[in-house]
Amino acid sequence: MKTLIQKLPLDHASSFVARTYRTPYFETPWHQHIEIELVLMTESYGTAFIGDALIEYHTDDVYLLGENLPHWFRKADTHPTGASMVVHFTKDFWGQAFLELPEMDAIRTLLDFSVQGLRLQGELRRQIAGQLRSIEQQRGFAQLATLLDCLHQISQSSDYVLINQSPVLTYSTTDQAQIHTVMEYTMAHFQQKIRLEDVATLTHRSVSAFCQYFRKSTKKSYVQFLTEIRLAHACKLLTTTNLPVTQVCFESGFHNWANFSKHFKHQLGLPPSQYRRQHSSPQTL
């Protein structure tokens, strides 16, 4: 997918950047950068598009995003603000010779496949989250040691999932603005009927040309992308509200029950009502 290639500023006294991003909107354009990103979501929840994967993110999630892995985060409208603690560093920020030491084999391997994106889980997530909460206040060697320890812990664990099953292609900035416009339009209108003609017009392409471009860029059709967004919203409504399942169907942008039920079962592996029983908290049952 065409992306904004972002250049991140480095302080003259630091070899990497560790800082908190906080905004009422917490929305980033679809972008990529050569720096690897270790990120803790400290506030809010919403939708993330990482590589070719559309996922929901939540407070306290921790991600390791490799160099030039395109990503985009969008906060849910219901949450007043959004924030994340982010560490940006290049693959060889400590020097190529240090990276090639035999003691660095595991970390070097970790950084190689971080281009697929990692989502930490369980105790590993809790440990790394705790260290990231303190790293911004540290300085000098203490900060460097914390980052190195985080990478060491991740490299010695299997308590994570790969967000993409294979490395993701990266692209130039040529069509970044168009793709970002398509994403924003989709997020703003997915609960309504969306015509391919209207989306294609946003990119100044015919419907046929747009569909070919979108599939080539994202490895999925636009209709599949739209369906995934609608299903993600349906899952959120099923687990956080007491809305009738039929109302969830229409609130999520589906226009008939049969279509919703078919897509939901195909994507999630079980009917909506069963999904609600298995994933809802007691107060929403």
TrEMBL record:
- HTH araC/xylS-type domain location is 180-278
Please provide the record's keywords in A-Z order: DNA-binding, Transcription, Transcription regulation
Task: Spell out where the chain crosses the membrane.
Answer: none
Q: Does the keyword Metal-binding apply?
A: no
A single Gene Ontology MF term assigned here is: DNA-binding transcription factor activity
Q: Which InterPro entries match?
A: Homeodomain-like_sf, HTH_AraC, HTH_AraC-typ_CS, RmlC-like_jellyroll, RmlC_Cupin_sf
Protein name per the record? Helix-turn-helix-domain containing protein AraC type
> What organism is this sequence from?
Fibrisoma limi BUZ 3
